Amino acid sequence: ALLSILAIFGLSLAENAAQIDTGLFRYALIIGLFGCAIPMFFFAIGTPKIPTGAATILSSSELPATIICAVIIIHESVTAFQWVGVGLIFLGIAYPYLAEIKQL
């Protein structure tokens, strides 16, 4: 992700580096640590200990869970189009199990 950001915004970041508040760096580091690094670390530890299907369900339900938490905790506004996307993700997760239920 860092390489993509630097490739797209590299020159403008270099030109505006003096304007970036150094206090924001601390918050960016905290968000990066708790939002990306620690969850991925624990997911990498836990994945070998659970069945493959459960790992797939957990990884694919991460985005809908994040959106729902953002709505509940920080009152983020989510458009109807985004809710449709969340519903499609949940439908994609449930579809294989619905097919199994119909066969029984």
Structure description:
The protein is mostly helical. The protein folds into 2 domains: 20-49; 51-104, no CATH class. 82% of the residues lie in helices and 0% in strands. It has 5 helices and no strands. The longest helix has 25 residues, at 22-46. The protein starts with a helix and ends with a helix. The model has no long low-confidence stretch (mean pLDDT 83).
Helical residue percent?
A: over 70%
Order of helices and strands: HHHHH
Distance between the termini: 44 Å
- Average predicted local confidence, pLDDT: 83
**Count of discrete alpha- or pi-helical segments spanning 4 or more residues:** 5
For the largest beta-sheet, the strand count, sense and barrel status come to: none
Total domains: 2
- Net shape: elongated
Task: Summarize the model shown.
This protein is an all-alpha fold. It has 2 domains: 30 residues; 54 residues, no CATH class.
Task: Offer a few descriptive terms.
104 residues, 5 helices, mainly alpha
Which secondary structure elements does this structure contain, and how are they paired or packed?
Elements: H1 2-15, H2 22-46, H3 52-60, H4 62-74, H5 80-103
